[in-house]
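Try this one yourself first.
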């Protein structure tokens, strides 16, 4: 990876089964100064990556034999390749596909057909983030080496070691902030783009459903008028009326249009939830209803809570108190809700797999006012719990008990920073193995 005149160029691997896409992207990136390798299958990608690790991967989703999701999962499960930024390229424009891409470790998602400027800017952003990450790691290694050298001087060891430890922690916090800012910026852009595109389509559907219903009623009235004026049509018309089940169509089509309208309204609510969860213009400090933030987060996690062939559903029990609006950064607070609820769902996975109906996987969410000055929120699950030996470390940056590729060790650390440093509150955990975990948030109602 090279950096000159504030522009970073790198070694980029393109994975796409369509030769035209490979040729176009290769030419675009070479013209921008990047070194490019191109392969047409997931298996070839994994092979060539182990020969030479790229700085960034542009990865198509729909490919034969091995799709882009599986390739990304294998990369994230390998210590050698888990830190390679993966940008998905796909014509799939559904929210589910985008959320899945980010969930398994993708850093960005570009929709085909793409625009030249957009591809180059998104690649440049991820190369910049990766360059910053490597620079921080290099600085960490230099600090650790310096620490070893200082060990030869007993008189200076204690003082300088403390200074280095403080610097190291500051660098780790800076790295967390860089990753978090990039992640939230990408999420905000994704939310805005998704909301805009879906709203345009839903508005078109909603606007035309009324006309469709009106036109149908007019046609139905015309048919009734024909039946009244010509009660005995010829046999051909009678046969056709029976074939299409005219009476059934007359009764069912209004219900069908009504169902379509209800579905469109539900999509609008989902888009509103996405906007409430991550809206760029909500970065300022303001008065908000935290219940709305919790509900928006639950709406985004709906697919993870539902029953599947292999998993029991997760029951959500809410006990909301009458609480005032609080002063906070809503964008950041919603991220805390997302991190804690995602962890709770992960803790419940074993219980969901056992499918014991008498032990239904459950998450309890409560809110209350404490001492008229604080709002307390708790998120409790009846999952596997957290061992006491590691409970004190769960808020440390990059500490995780999850398997490689499934956890970054940033979720709880970022949440702790947001609650304690940004909102002057408290974030604590109480847990016993096999009895579940409770995360408690305390935030001042006002910080004036």
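Now uncover the answer:
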């Amino acid at each position: 990876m090279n950096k000159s005149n504030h522009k970073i160029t790198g070694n980029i691997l393109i994975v796409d089964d369509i030769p035209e896409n490979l040729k176009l992207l290769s030419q675009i990136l070479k013209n921008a100064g990047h070194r490019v390798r191109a392969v047409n299958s997931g298996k070839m990608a994994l092979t060539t990556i182990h020969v030479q690790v790229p700085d960034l991967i542009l990865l198509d989703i729909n490919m034969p034999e091995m799709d882009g999701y599986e390739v990304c999962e294998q990369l994230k499960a390998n210590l050698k390749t888990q830190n390679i930024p993966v940008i998905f390229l796909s014509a799939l424009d559904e929210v589910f596909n985008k959320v899945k891409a980010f969930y398994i470790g993708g850093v960005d998602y570009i929709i085909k057909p793409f625009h030249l400027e957009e591809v180059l800017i998104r690649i440049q952003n991820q190369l910049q983030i990766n360059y910053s990450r490597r620079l921080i790691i290099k600085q960490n290694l230099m600090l650790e080496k310096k620490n070893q050298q200082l060990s030869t001087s007993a008189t200076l060891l204690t003082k300088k070691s403390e200074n280095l430890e403080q610097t190291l922690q500051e660098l780790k916090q800076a790295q967390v902030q860089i990753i978090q800012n990039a992640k939230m910026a990408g999420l905000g852009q994704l939310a805005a783009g998704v909301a805009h595109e879906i709203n345009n389509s839903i508005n078109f559907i909603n606007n035309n459903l009324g006309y469709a219903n009106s036109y149908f009623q007019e046609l139905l009235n015309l048919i009734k008028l024909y039946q009244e004026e010509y009660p005995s049509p010829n046999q051909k018309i009678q046969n056709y009326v029976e074939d299409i089940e005219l009476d059934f169509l007359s009764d069912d089509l209004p219900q069908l249009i009504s169902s379509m309208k209800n579905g469109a309204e539900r999509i609008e609510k989902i888009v509103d939830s996405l906007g409430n969860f991550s809206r760029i213009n909500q970065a300022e400090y303001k008065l908000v209803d935290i219940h709305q933030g919790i509900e928006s987060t639950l709406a985004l996690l709906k697919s993870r809570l539902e029953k599947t062939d292999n998993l029991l559903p997760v029951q959500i029990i809410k006990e909301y108190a009458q609480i005032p609006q609080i002063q906070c950064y809503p964008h950041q607070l919603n991220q805390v809700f997302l991190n804690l609820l995602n962890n709770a769902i992960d803790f419940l996975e074993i219980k969901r797999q056992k499918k014991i109906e008498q032990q239904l996987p459950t998450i309890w969410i409560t809110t209350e006012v404490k001492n008229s000055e604080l709002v307390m929120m708790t998120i409790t699950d009846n999952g596997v719990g957290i061992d006491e030996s590691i409970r004190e470390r769960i808020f440390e940056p990059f500490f995780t008990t999850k398997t490689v590729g499934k956890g970054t060790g940033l979720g709880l650390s970022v949440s702790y920073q947001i609650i304690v440093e940004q909102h002057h509150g408290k974030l604590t955990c109480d847990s016993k193995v096999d009895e579940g975990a409770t995360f408690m948030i305390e935030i001042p109602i006002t910080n004036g």
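Discussion: Residues 154-229 form the longest helix (76 residues). Residues 2-129 form a domain with the Rossmann fold fold (CATH 3.40.50.2300).
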